[in-house]
Amino acid sequence: MLTFQTLAQRLWPSTSYRVPFLGLDFTGKTTLLYYIQSEADVITPYPTMGMNIESLPLHFAKGNVSITGFDIGGGCGGPRFAGQLARFYLPTSAAVIWVVDSSDKTRLSESVEEFEHIMDFLQRSQRSEMPVVLLAHKSDLTNPIPLDELRRMFWPHCKTHPFAIFPTTCRRPYKESGVPVVLAWLYSQIQAAELLGQHSSEETSTETQEQNVKEMTTYSGSTNKLARRLEDFLIRAESDSSPEVFLQQFRELNLPAWDHYTHIRLAYVILTTYGRQKGKNMIFDGLQHYIANSKQTTSRAFHVTMTYFWIQLVHFGIRSSAATSSHQPPPNSDSSTTLTSMSDASTLVDTPGAVPPSTPSTDDFFRFLLINPYVVDSNLWTDYYSKDVMMSPKAKEEMVLPDKQPLPSLLVRDTIRR
Ligand SMILES: Nc1nc2c(ncn2[C@@H]2O[C@H](COP(=O)(O)OP(=O)(O)OP(=O)(O)O)[C@@H](O)[C@H]2O)c(=O)[nH]1
Ligand SMILES: [Mg+2]
């Protein structure tokens, strides 16, 4: 049976120490991650969808250490879902960074509540010795919550952990930001844990793993639909046909199902194999062809705006997971090419002697889903479009822009990633 923790270990082998950046949305987790990486302030103008995973090589007088920062966004499914996602990584993490927006007293008790859930989980995963650092972030703003008050509220929930609170800001020069002190503390804690042999246990009992899966889908007794759907997607992906067979089934109007999972996998496989420009046209042409000719889709109609929406979201996700993917997109994959259709696609794949573009592996699709779990939510479009706009005849026939908020921008993300 697939267990999430085994999967996480397979996809991100522990060559460096995993440190998740957790906390409520809008607290500054992403800004901090890239601030640590570049030692300079960066602009993060939109909430994180899914995760940012970055390698952070840290240098100290006493030695060097490599940390992999997992910034788990509150921009998808809310803090509860982010907390559930964190459970994939927590049992094998070296430490936890909990970020509080110290300028926002109104959300303090919400932050404590989420923190308590995470600490309970660590307790049950037998990781009650894991170092926890609380960042009283945005300390540049006026009237920050006093550190004593933060200690009073958070400390009772993590008494068994090495624990420290530091004020931090990304709005000052790096050396004055408080961040170097945090990293030095983390380094000393990781070294100490290493000496005591606490972090060496990568193995987790089957019982604990099964508990983690249960934790992933159940939260305080209430079932989380998104987490369940993610689990369904991962289980399906594990036993699914190869990407080559899957594309063949698409061309032959013979897919095993015509549902949200199938659409996401189709978009993923085609966009990673052929790049955005070519892949987008292939998806448009291929879907129209399929809907017009397959018995599976007799009552369906092609929807231009919906198709464009999912292409944009899946492509955004592919670019987000690119840093951790083993699959290399084709050269010039994003450059402009002439219109390509599904019949061109079969030519590309089947021409004798031609070198076919390589398709991504199953692991790459797992990785994509884990980093971008929001794609499992078939109602995600409602965050961007009102029902009236999306269901209008105009939106069905041509691309209509969202009326609620702009779609996540690759340009912005790439500026941040530089
Ligand atoms: N004043 C101030 N603002 C900051 C600081 N760090 C981040 N911000 C701002 O806080 C806002 C939220 O930052 P993000 O990094 O997107 O927050 P996040 O925790 O990643 O949010 P989600 O992705 O929604 O979970 C942005 O407007 C940042 O520019 C800081 O040190 N000082
Ligand atoms: Mg973020």
UniProtKB/TrEMBL annotation:
User: Where along the chain is Mg(2+) bound?
Assistant: T30, T48
- Which Gene3D superfamilies does the UniProt record give? P-loop containing nucleotide triphosphate hydrolases (3.40.50.300)
> Which GO terms of the molecular function aspect are on file?
GTP binding; GTPase activity; metal ion binding
> Which Pfam family is one of this chain's hits?
Arf
Report residue spans for region: Disordered. 198-218, 322-341
The protein's superkingdom reads Eukaryota
**Residue positions binding GTP:** G23, L24, D25, F26, T27, G28, K29, T30, G74
- Which keywords fit this entry according to its UniProt record? GTP-binding, Magnesium, Metal-binding, Nucleotide-binding
Q: Which PANTHER family match?
A: ADP RIBOSYLATION FACTOR-RELATED
For this entry, the protein name equals Uncharacterized protein
